[in-house]
Amino acid sequence: KNNNMSFLILVRHGQSIWNLEKRFTGWVDVDLTDQGKQEAEKAGLLIKKREINIDFYYSSLQLRANKTLEIIQTVLEDNKNFSKAWELNERHYGALTGLNKTEMGKKIGEKKVHEFRRSWNIKPGALNKESPYHPINIKTYKDIPKEMIPDTESLKDTYERAIKYFQKEIQNKLKENNILISAHGNSIRALCKKLFDLDNNQISSLEIPTGNPLL
Q1: Is residue 167 over pLDDT 70?
Q2: What is the mean pLDDT of residues 14-26?
Q3: 75 and 200 in contact (C-beta within 8 Å)?
Q4: Rounded distance, CA 64 to CA 32, Å?
């Protein structure tokens, strides 16, 4: 290890199919595009170049983050088990889930879309429990207690679950371990808000690029 420093690496998953289609994805479980797979590979190469050995890996429950992590591990030639936690999932976009961001802009106005995407504590309307996009109807989430599954979330909601998990499971290990977390735009923004002590306005302008490791 570089003189006893430990590293935390945050990676937002590579481009997903719905990123490409400009749709609000949230908890819908979509796969990576070919470009997304290449982004993950590039992330792995950047980490490999720094010669950082990862002691613990974490990911959300979602395919796009898991897949990104598996590709990174392949590049690092490391097949350690990794922990998957729904608390690191992307923010649940409620009734916006599956809708196209550009079309929504035309329908309700860019300002309103931006508000939904970037405000701290405004949440979109609840997603109908009958919707195939609702997490209770997606088998990835079958083991999460029903009462823990949201119908919609604000960034604040995402922050609260992600930070609680981080403090309970990850923070202490950072004293002497290198840790990599493969997650999502909003769960990583939540972690950055905490780590860099950003206020609610600063967090709204923080952009997390896909497949780009933050060290």
Answers
A1: yes
A2: 95
A3: no
A4: 6
Encoded tokens for 122:
């405004």
Backbone conformation region of residue 184, classed left if phi is above 0, alpha if psi is from -120 to 50, else beta:
beta
Give the DSSP letter of residue 110: H
What pTM was computed for the model? 0.94
Residue type, 34: D
The answer for residues whose C-beta is within 8 angstroms of residue 26's C-beta and 6 or more apart is 90, 91, 92, 93, 94, 96, 97, 133, 153
Q: Cα separation of 129 and 176, whole Å?
A: 43
Q: Would the pLDDT of 2 be above 70?
A: no
SS3 annotation, 148-212 = HCCCCCCHHHHHHHHHHHHHHHHHHHHHCCCEEEEECHHHHHHHHHHHCCCCHHHHHCCCCCCCC
Residue range 143-160: average pLDDT? Answer: 96
Nearest to 56 by CA among 78, 28, 38, 31: 78
Contact assessment for residue 211 and residue 36, using Cβ atoms and an 8 Å cutoff: yes
Question: 114 pLDDT band (50/70/90 cuts)?
Answer: confident
Under a CB-based contact definition with an 8 Å cutoff, are residues 152 and 124 in contact? yes
* Whole-angstrom distance, CA of residue 215 vs CA of residue 204: 21
Is 52 exposed, middle or buried, given 0-12, 13-18 or 19+ CB atoms closer than 10 A?
buried
- Annotated catalytic residues are 13, 90
